[in-house]
Amino acid sequence: MSTSPAVDRIELMQTFLHIVEAGSLSAAALQMGATQPTVSRRLQALERSLGVRLLRRSTHAMKLTEDGERCYERARELIADWHAFEADLRGVGDEPEGTLRVVAPHALGQLLLVGPLAEYLRAYPRVSVEWLLNDRRPDFIAEGVDCAIQVGEMTDAMAVAVKVSEVPRVVVAAPSLLKGRSPPAHAAELAELPWLALRTFYRNEVLLTHRPTGEIARVPIRPRMSTDSLYALQSAARMGLGACLGSAWLLNEDIAAGRLVQLVPQWHVAPLPVYLTYPHARFQPARLRRFIEMMRLALADPTGQVWEARVA
């Protein structure tokens, strides 16, 4: 089998992906409507072309070699780029289709972003979305993630990060926590309170700036409870377990209803940046381009409609 034309190599890589994802040559052949000898010959041709062994096979098992693992990750990326390249040549007006795999933060993904997501799905009926909620940084290649919405500073140099918004934050506590105490007048007095920590963004210290003077206060705290959930932080604060620093979009209604009190309102806490991130690729499928465009518009204004949702 000649492997010099690019289309042959793409076919070989697609066959290799089918083998790995199906778990065996016979299962891959069934998925592809081919015979097992044909699939085996394509695998051997790819290995000869690359000059490496990709799979170790025994009677009962199949395992990727180290080279095979690297090849699998790169092949997935290359095939995705090829499909996006074909779509790009057909024109940017092509109807988006296929499955989009998106990671979003728990709180934003459960409450604020479902509205823009629904608009996207209504606009493009041939697209389906896997909406995965967690607050960690995704491994785009290993997890097959197309795009992520992330809060906080970006450190992944391997991904494109587009800043689309900011999340204002406030310091709050329940009235019961302040009972018998004078409300703190200076940021330094916050250290005297019991605290709750949102360990994703702060653990043992909070930094505040006095709006009128620009004075900066670095306040040490000793949290009674630490969590990675914004909702758990909100619930614990309502119960009077400690003061906390959290997203204004979630806590403002509690402040308005008297369930929480904003502390040291003249002291400003730096907002958290919101990024749309996705892996580097020369070509992007239409479904990803349209999703990025729609989410950028929805998140652009922190005072806009998308940020007005509230927890019941």
Automatic annotation (TrEMBL):
Ranges where the HTH lysR-type domain occurs: 8-65
Keyword Transcription: yes
Cross-referenced InterPro entries: LysR-type_TF_proteobact-type (IPR058163), LysR_HTH_N (IPR000847), LysR_subst-bd (IPR005119), WH-like_DNA-bd_sf (IPR036388), WH_DNA-bd_sf (IPR036390)
Gene Ontology biological process terms in this record: DNA-templated transcription
Record's keyword terms, sorted: DNA-binding, Transcription, Transcription regulation
The keyword Transcription is annotated on this UniProt entry: yes
GO molecular function: DNA-binding transcription factor activity; sequence-specific DNA binding
Family: Belongs to the LysR transcriptional regulatory family.
Name of the protein described by the UniProt record: DNA-binding transcriptional LysR family regulator
Source species: Variovorax boronicumulans
